[in-house]
Amino acid sequence: MKKTPLFLLLLLMITAMSCSNDDDDTADTEEYFEYKYDNSDVEITGWTAQKNGDRYIIQAQGNGQNFAIEFNKYGNLASANSYSTSNLNFPLSQSFAYYSSYSFDFNLQNIDTDNQMIKADFDGLLYEDNYLINSTTHQVSGSFNVKYTEYPEDEISKVSCKIDNQDWHATNGDHSSSNQYETYSTFNDDKFIINLMYIDGFLNTCNNCSFTPNSNLRMQLDIYDPVNDDIIECPSTGTLSITNYSPPTGFSNGVIEGEFNFTATNPQNNQTHQIDNGHFKLIITP
Question: 93: closest CA among 74, 106, 79, 105?
Fold first, then answer.
């Protein structure tokens, strides 16, 4: 039997791989945006895509309709919106505020940093009132492979941790005041909500401070239940460090930075959740 020299086999393999990669690069740099609204095709005639830090914002338009979607590099959906800038009767619809992946499937397929291309597909419901789960909905679906432009990162809040040993990154947040507590809530497209809670006057720098469900300064895990449209408050116990606190002054934003580790218990089923390696930087507006 005649044998092919090893170096020739390697050369052939490298050549084949190179040809394959060239073909893939050509396919991956071809731009497109496909979109359906309430199961009807919408011809998309233009789009823009931008990168701000870890976040991507894609906007598309065509046939009197607009669609926008925002997500992070980890594949967590921040928001999806359908609207019209030319038809006042066209309803504004948005992905649900909490646990959006329950009703909206977003799949980040690829980020090509060399060619600044991003590829993804989506399919799900948008709500005319995205805080009311029984509100009127619209079905959207589509896919895109578009070139993005990178911009300087905006000043935004960031929270990350591990929940039950799974990496978790916030995409959204809000602030509320009730029962004496100031609460900064952060969440993404899953069911979990991470809260920093404090009574006014008790937010101070501290190192590895212990907290319980009744502490004046504490973290708390909430879980959104889409079946009952309810936010479950989970009593939480652990440690918290406030490494930087600069209150807002005049027209300048303030900031709260810190670290946390805690255990939370779902009161409805007694399931515990472990939150580790937590880091936050919360921007406080005047």
Answer: 79
Outline where DSSP puts E strands in 152-271.
158-163, 166-169, 172-178, 181-187, 192-199, 206-211, 217-225, 230-234, 236-246, 254-265
What local confidence, expressed as pLDDT, does residue 178 receive? 86
Both structure tokens of 97? 């505020």
Distance in Å from the first CA to the final CA of the chain:
81
Residues of the chain with pLDDT under 50: 1-26
pTM of the model: 0.87
Q: Which among 121, 116, 109 is positioned nearest to 146, based on CA atoms?
A: 116
d(CA 249, CA 174): 20
Phi, psi of 12 (to 5 degrees): -65, -40
What are the residues whose beta carbons fall under 8 Å from the beta carbon of 22, sequence distance 6 or more?
A: none
108-166 pLDDT per residue, tens: 999 999 999 999 999 999 999 999 999 999 999 999 999 999 999 888 899 999 999 99
Alpha helices in the chain (DSSP H): 6-28
Cross-strand bridge partners of residue 112: 117
